[in-house]
From TrEMBL, chains A, B, C, D:
Gene Ontology molecular function terms on file: heme binding; L-tryptophan 2,3-dioxygenase activity; metal ion binding
Lineage: unclassified sequences, metagenomes, ecological metagenomes
Protein name: Tryptophan 2,3-dioxygenase
Record GO biological process: L-tryptophan catabolic process to acetyl-CoA; L-tryptophan catabolic process to kynurenine
PANTHER family attached to this UniProt entry: TRYPTOPHAN 2,3-DIOXYGENASE (PTHR10138:SF0)
Organism: marine metagenome
UniProt xrefs under Gene3D superfamilies: 1.10.287.3810, 1.20.58.480
Length: 367, 367, 367, 367
């Protein structure tokens, strides 16, 4: 039974007494208030509150996937909470425009006082990255320094624990590897898909060869690119080649999970695959928006401090630039579109399988 | 001389230890955590942090205008800080989309626990309204209850103090009334303007009369509207009529300030009027965005609670709807466009006056 | 078999030769180009291109619903195309900001030349309204004039045809009335729901009565509101009362469709109801965004022309204001939240029914 | 005198008859309509209409700067038209979200028919780049092919003409080089600035050296970065070094223009510098938004086609990625923040100069 809760007042419920007095301006302590430091503090506090919310949702999604049997409803919950994270990320990006109302000159008024405080020390942001699945070896190492090095000891421990726990990337990969709805028994899907692919690639090749506007030099370039496409397909059909790419750090998702994810993409029109498809699609959204945020942030920092060393003694702008690409986590899902084939070439699934992927409305209840 | 400040760490500088533990879920206290209550708390905390920032900027703008001699630089500062408020308001509106990821059903899980907490009790939002210039008599009174009645005593006092202090509306009005750059001495601006207006109105009237597609009934309607336009111009030329409209609560800005504001609009191309024009324009933006926020908020609340009584025992959605229009503060500036006349009809200012409204680049330094 | 298509060039494929020469400035014809007329023309052309796309999607959705047996896949297609319409509507709203870079003074330079052209004459916008389900009687009649009166004859005929064809509102209502997945046979859902409602209403009533902060006058107000809630529930349980509200134009959706829609809301967690829930939710989004667009448009027009008569001899701003509320089409779906009850009170469906609302993963295929 | 213009109807004024029939679907010609091709066509037509508007504004800005004496009002016009371009660019970026409602699978339905049409062939986009100031040598050359090679002959000529005409970059550079308001006569600004810089750099250096948390290896890294900062300042004080950087393609803006731009940044609070500061700032905005658009576009294309060859036989995604950084035009203005110094260290300008940078309100007219 639920306990009784005393009547609430807005101000107390939200702890506003503390919240609204937690802005301490260093410039004021130093004797001369810099007007824009208030914005700087509040914007960063708001970032951290959003990060807390993202972590809260992320933990619940990880929890939904960290079990043996994953139900439809777990996927449904994951999809709607990822959607929430995505809406928050859009705000994170948009609110850079607020911070940009501070000019570089106004920032100079208090910038030196911040040393060595820096956004690099945001433990929550690092946790988000770790929980999504960024690995220590994929981190861009700025200035020969571990990303945890400038943090409080207890925060270092929290981060280490998150590195050791299964990430969302790993849990979803594991789920894909044992996904039940795509076991075809007798039906040889992959053989039929392969012959469709061969047909499509042959047509792509012809497009290049018959393009009269291309010089022979240009044709050569295109044919090289075409061969790269072939090589990518090879890795799809050959686990060993796929694993080679993983070893070269060009792919991350396992061969088995890749094939399951591709099937979800190809047959996403079937009701049972709606939510799995959305799941993969939203993971990619989260990844792209994280990258877009880093990118917009880079532009903003570059504009704010030019090429000088950042607060915390960092060349913030170069760091952010490097990490933009390197820190992608779910890009393998995006690259799956390489393997799409036109609907007309798609192997037609046997009725038995089709039925397992749909709903049955009891038509007799129709009036 | 500046005092020495010890080295700062991000986590401490932003007071994150307190900030990130200040979310207490009532559903948890009641024995069963409602997942979405975290979002509800954090979104509202973020609203309040933004409100604090808006108040901080607003106070500094009010301070810039609360003096005898107002310099160009004061106007410049007001313009750039209003721009910041505007960017924040855009975020306030956009972030409604985050809250909308909570479904009405999810809200029901903890809604009853909130009683009687309600956004109506946000003292900061009321302060923003008061400082901008919303008067007690223009407030939509919900349920025969003063807007301060459900607040802590010290908050009631703070609000009363803000009601008694000069608002931004009043300060800008006062500044307009004594604005120096529009004293024309011998040049009779208003006489020339009036004859231009008469010419324009006559042409408008002809447009209606010669429109063959209008039935005589429709023409009548249009002519009535045309006469309303004439009446509005009458009030511009006749202080008494203007004051009548003020008494009927159809206008608020004084006759003298209205004329100064119109001159700023008409000659806004002159360098010296750039910033004054932007000032008026941004006050209108702030007002519109506040209204847009209320409007979007209304739609969201209606969708969340339907037509039931809100948290705090309020019919939130009807309140918000009523207040949307009633709480406009600077709409008189928007209505000034009624009085614009085409550039071609605009009285040409004497050279002497023109010179006072511009810069002089020493052309000899041109090479 | 597909026909061969000759090689395409971007410029020709998009018909850019025509498209980019289709801007004719009246101010240029009149002898003096007004710089901002180009923006005015192009922004409106872009609006019309987006309207064409919305109509294209809308027609395909209507087509999907205009049949006897509606499959899961039809709902899925409707949901994804409504999502596209929603994204377009967001752009329609945002792009008002581009038009707002034109100042009222700049508009005056060519405004009089436009007579009597006016956005009221956009046939595509009227078609969107008609196809969604706005009825002729619900239209705000501006100036005693039919909305078709200022259009070309063939356009009047197209609009009349759209008025006579089944609208999306009607088709979805019809689908809801015969929706098969909510036939409960022996299980008496509505009896159990009603007793849950009674319990909830009694608790709401207690909240008002025990609130010490309310004066007796305020309590009276709240109790009246509470009784309104009761009346609304009455109409849910009594078809006659529901029809009375329809006759008074306070509701539009039929009693049977209302009940089906409410069941979808209440059990939207069940896989089979995912898409039907999204359908209703997105129809409401479309409606709200249309309203939001009208609202933002109103503010913009008011700012642009003040209280003067609009192009086409209309008092544009007052029209837009009136129509904002009156032209809502799907608000009944939003009001359904009034009838939500907490999950804990929700009647537990029998296993047999639950099974019909879900998927069955063949657990033996799990490895 | 103005010519008479006959009455206009909305439909005719906007040429809607042609505009709304200018969408020809290749999939329809090929015998099987692909539903999503309509969106593809309309979105790209809308892009091109926006590009036309951007070019229209850009031409008028270039025209304002392509003269011997540039007045305050020219700068003012440039600033407000750049603001308009910026608002359009924001829409260009946002509307990618509309195109993203098309799935890769839906795109496959008509993608092959488009060969070799491709966004690379947009002459208007190339013109925008050329007119802003992208030089042929700074273009990322995709597949050993000139960017003009796949265009109609007359379009190639138009592009060649734009390459040969003065770009906005060059015109603004030229204006900065002869800007009159920063001639200081006797006052030795640069000497005083240099000693302020030396003071600031010495302090930055101390920050690194006294940071106990840095290992000696890390300190070395930081000191190298610090030295890079010194080298950048050297180039500011030494024209020869600056020109070396230009020759190495690390800078583009001339030494003289760089110094003028820096002065504008440093004293942007002075009324006369408001608009010049905004001009530089908005040029940077345009550049960043162009880059952001390319970046978002890259992500979208990658997601749509994976790593396969693009329409037009291009590896669209790799191209877009390469060009993102390489095609920046105004980044030198962003890098100027490197040279900012705190307000407290800023040389105090002599009264005579200050007076030339401000307005004079005739205080006697104050009442």
């Amino acid at each position: 039974m639920k306990k009784q809760i005393p009547p609430q007042y807005y101000h107390d419920y939200l702890n506003l007494e503390d919240l609204l007095t937690s802005q301490e301006l260093l410039s004021e302590k130093a004797g001369e208030r810099a007007h824009d430091e208030m914005l700087f503090v509040i914007v960063h506090q708001i970032y951290e509150l959003w990060f807390k919310q993202i972590l809260f949702e992320l933990d619940s999604i990880i929890n939904a996937f960290d079990r043996d049997v994953i139900r439809e409803s777990h996927i449904g919950i994951a999809v709607s909470r990822l959607s929430r994270i995505i809406e928050i990320q859009r705000i994170l990006i948009d609110q850079i425009q607020v911070l940009e109302t501070m000019t570089p000159m106004d920032f100079l008024d208090f910038r030196d006082l911040l040393t060595p405080a820096s956004g690099f020390q945001s433990i929550q942001f690092r946790l988000i990255e770790n929980k999504l699945g960024l690995t220590a070896e994929n981190r861009y190492e700025y200035g020969h320094r571990d990303y945890k090095s400038q943090m409080h000891d207890e925060h270092q421990m929290i981060l280490e624990r998150s590195e050791a726990s299964p990430s969302l990337f790993e849990l979803v990969e594991h789920w894909l590897e044992r996904t039940p709805f795509l076991v075809f028994e007798d039906f040889n899907f992959w053989e039929q898909y392969r012959s469709a692919v061969d047909e499509m690639l042959a047509s792509d090749r012809k497009i290049i060869l018959k393009n009269d506007k291309l010089s022979s030099k240009q044709k050569k370039t295109h044919l090289q690119e075409y061969e790269n496409t072939e090589i990518m397909f090879d890795s799809l059909f050959d686990k060993k080649k796929h694993n080679d790419l993983i070893n070269k750090n060009e792919k991350r998702l396992s061969h088995k999970a890749t094939k399951a994810a591709l099937l979800i993409l190809l047959y996403r029109d079937r009701p049972i695959l709606h939510n799995p498809y959305k799941l993969l699609s939203k993971l990619l959204d989260v990844d792209e928006l994280l990258t877009t945020w880093r990118y917009r942030h880079t532009l903003m920092v570059a504009r704010m401090i030019g090429r000088k060393i950042g607060t915390g003694g960092s060349t913030g702008s170069s760091y952010l630039k490097e990490s933009t690409e390197k820190h992608r986590i779910f890009s393998d899902y995006g690259n799956l579109t390489t393997f799409l084939i036109p609907r007309s070439l798609l192997p037609r699934l046997p009725d038995e399988i089709l039925r397992n992927l749909g709903f049955y409305y009891n038509s007799s209840t129709h009036k």
